[in-house]
Amino acid sequence: EQIEKGGYEHFMLKEIFEQPKSIHDTMRGRLLVNEGIIKMAGIWDHLERFKNANRIIIIACGTSWHAGLIGEYLIEEFARIPVEVEYASEFRYRNPIITDKDVVIAISQSGETADTMAALKLAKEKGAFIYGICNVVDSSIARITDAGSYTHAGPEIGVASTKAFTAQLTILSLIALKLGKHNGNLGNAEFMSLISELDAIPKKIEEVLETTHELTQNIAKDFINASNFLYLGRGYNYPAALEGALKLKEISYIHAEGYPAAEMKHGPIALIDENMPIVIIAPKKGHYDKIVSNVQEIKARKGKVIAVVNKGDQQVSAMADYVIEIPETSECFSPIVASVPLQLLAYYIAVYRGANVDQPRNLAKSVTVE
Ligand code: G6P
Asked: Looking at ligand 1, which atom is closest to the CA of residue 113?
């Protein structure tokens, strides 16, 4: 097992550090920047199905569901096809309206999650076209779908998903850009600039790992005894806030909630005092001014702000108690980059609390029960 961990203390840390490579592997053979194309046979062969879809329904559980939420933003922005994102367990039990004009995308790292599988069977019975985004090759979900794309992130051993999540975001980005290009919503210049941004993501993650590894350890030390955490983000980074909170609760057992930053005033603000750490994702291209006022409101109540900002940021950084800088990218890809320091922060808080990071209590890597 020590050999499999490749010198890292835990699989989770190894998998966090593998992300420049795993994202590169996800894009390999698909993103051809020089030729200006995205090659995805699963989409290309069924382009008409996607183009004529009434809507796309994304079905998933856990971390994969968070990836699905970002997928909704991506596909609606670039392909202009309406998207709904559903928890598989809710979808399957509520007599959903599904027609043969719907495209269902299932996202699952393991490809074995029972609720996702059952939801897919139901959608299939109703005649929907089923597309799978799985990491495990030849898994049950991969086998029942009509078409799909593997994430190719490599085996993920840590129960808390890290590299599979960023690989799912990468695939969803590719799908959204490809559909946008082919249905005429995305002009060539914008398409070209987005694909070169996407191509640069592995390098940016490498940089983030280098510059935030020690920093997140130091920040973690100050929050070992926290009993609650709030994670806030807007737009594309709202699901990233949900995922940041999920990572922390899964492995450290600290209660954490993710919220869209603007919803803070409808509840969470009542919780803020000097004992409440708040992780706020505030890249320059993501409704920055609004986030600045959220941070002002938090500081007026003495909350402890850990801010994830772009390099050279001034306004949020001046108010934050802790600043984590990440390189700039397009807003739509910023959750991929911003998630990495949040994974590290959760990891180190859990390690310092003595938790079993790779196998947290009560959780399983693949949930094959309903
Ligand atoms: C479990 C795992 C999570 C995962 C979820 C969905 O809860 O612990 O990490 O996100 O199942 O799993 P899937 O394999 O369908 O992505």
From this structure: 15
Clarify whether residues 169 and 261 are in a common domain. no
Question: Is the minimum distance from the CB of 61 to ligand 1 under 6 angstroms?
Answer: yes
Residues 26 and 81 in one domain: yes
Mutation test residue for ligand 1: of 16, 65, 86, 110, the one with most atoms within 8 Å of CB: 110
Does ligand 1 come within 6 angstroms of the Cβ of 157?
Answer: no
**369 in a structural domain:** no
Strands (DSSP E) found in 47-170:
55-60, 83-87, 102-108, 129-134, 147-150
Phi and psi (nearest 5°) for 228?
-145, 155
d(CA 366, ligand 1 centre) in Å: 6
For residue 84, tell me if it sits in a domain.
yes
Tell me which residue has its CA closest to atom 2 in ligand 1: 365
Confidence at residue 369, expressed as pLDDT on a 0 to 100 scale: 83
> What are the CB-based long-range contacts (under 8 Å, 24+) for 189-194?
191/36, 192/36, 194/78, 194/330, 194/332
Q: Which domain holds residue 256?
A: 202-352
Give yes or no: residues 303 and 163 share one domain. Answer: no
Nearest atom, ligand 1, residue 250 CA: 8
208 shares a domain with 180? no
Domain end residue (candidates: 177, 199, 221): 199
User: 140: Cβ below 6 Å to ligand 1?
Assistant: no
Query: What 3-state class would DSSP assign to 140?
Result: helix
Give backbone dihedrals phi and psi of 177, rounded to 5 degrees, phi first: -70, -40
Domain identity same for 156 and 21 = yes
Reported ipTM: the value is 0.96
Q: pLDDT per residue over 133-188, tens digit each?
A: 999 999 999 999 999 999 999 999 999 999 999 999 999 999 999 999 999 999 99
Answer yes or no: do 193 and 211 share one domain. no
Same domain, 62 and 195: yes
